[in-house]
Amino acid sequence: MAAQKFAVTTSLRPAPEQVETARLVAGELKVPYVERGRLSLEVLSAKHGLGGMVVVSAQRISYISGDREFYFHPGLARLRIMELKNGKTDQMIKAMSLRRGDSVLDCTLGLGADAIVASYVSGAEGRVTGVESSPLIALLVRRGLAACREVDQDIAPAMRRVEVINANYKDYLAGLPPRSFDVVYFDPMFRIPLYHSPAMNAMRTLANPEPVDRETIDLAVTVGVKRVVFKERRGSSEFQRLGFKLIVGGKHAPVSYGVIDLQGASDEG
Asked: What is d(CA 38, CA 41) in angstroms, rounded to the nearest whole number?
């Protein structure tokens, strides 16, 4: 999939700090900064021959392409953490067998929800690193994790602790020493999407569509200490293709988790 051309601009009538941030973001992404003036995004994109625009507003930084908008928000992570606080089971955390103080490498960061939940569970003693191959997604999520104020005192520290790395996950794994992380996790773009939400549709145009290969899983096994975990649709043939024999998850959930237990004993019934 060819990369979509885009530039950075502001909302209409921007404050000076928005213009400054927009110029900084354009520099980070190595794309042009375009003065907004009074033009609509549609007209501005057409004028410069662009497929989308990164827009810096007073509320957030987002990527807009046609009627699709992508921006960082902690909504799903917030809900999952609230459920954990209320004693409910999070299937991803269960599949990871995650404990306080553990380290997690999330190879497919995306919107960052899984990384935030893992950071909350592993706590200040733990470590969560998220790898994202799209420079734009990585930037939006990194800045969102640092700046979002719409979270309570439990979730905010978990967000701030997530380290975002812009890299290809296979290359990143290949450069790590053995046994670097307790858990190595994959949640790639599903071969067949489960949902067609505007946020996911917008991200799908930016994200790496390539399927995970067996060599990558072999690298993850070398890097991991406790578990390698892979999320996919329930019943997906991807589990078998990649060598995951232990499949766990809620009975009626639309997704499952493939687990490679690196310690030789599973606590899954």
From this structure: 9
Overall pTM surpassing 0.85 (yes/no): yes
138 and 32, same domain (yes or no): no
Query: Rounded CA gap, 204 and 257, in Å?
Result: 21
pLDDT given at position 85: 93
- pLDDT tens figures, 252-264: 888 999 999 999 7
Same domain, 24 and 129: no
Give the separation between CA 114 and CA 126, rounded to whole angstroms: 15
Cβ-contact 218, 75 below 8 angstroms: no
| Number of other CB atoms surrounding residue 240 within 10 Å | 11
Quote the domain boundaries for residue 242: 75-261
Contact by Cβ (8 Å): 119, 126: yes
